[in-house]
Design a protein that fits this description.
The chain has 132 residues and is mainly alpha-helical. The protein contains seven helices and no strands. This is Globin.
């Protein structure tokens, strides 16, 4: 990443972010802990994620320009996010980064940057919400 000013630039700008998002969400949809949290029509979620990650990684403020302040913790509060789900989310992202052939050092930088927010969104330790 030494030759780039931002993670956004290092991953290939908006096109690179889009490729990561396109590799990420099929993994999420197949993951038993994550799939129940997402709508069947995943495309609006993917579009917002690409806008957000662009901004989050130092690119243009695409998300804020369209939707206002991200307020990501508040937006995630309606969903039961456990520590296990945070780790599953990061694992899906790791797979998406690998699939896109990002250098190992850049993958670790991206995952480190995402790890804080992923764990910040944890709002429950309940792992068996389905139990009766």
């Amino acid at each position: 990443m030494n030759n780039y000013r931002t993670i956004y630039d290092a991953v290939g700008g908006f096109e690179g972010i889009t490729r990561i998002v396109e590799a990420f969400y099929p993994r999420v949809q197949k993951h038993p802990l994550l799939a129940p949290l997402f709508p069947e029509d995943i495309f609006p979620v993917m579009e917002k994620q690409a806008l957000f990650l662009s901004q989050f990684f130092g690119g243009p403020a695409l998300y804020s320009d369209q939707y206002g302040h991200p307020m990501m913790r508040a937006r995630h509060m309606p969903f039961p996010i456990t520590p296990e789900r945070a780790e599953a989310w990061l694992s899906c992202m790791r797979g998406a980064l690998e699939e896109n052939g990002l250098p190992a050092e850049l993958q670790e930088i991206v995952l480190e940057r995402l790890s804080g927010p992923a764990h910040h969104f944890v709002n429950t330790n309940e792992t068996n919400e389905q139990e009766t």
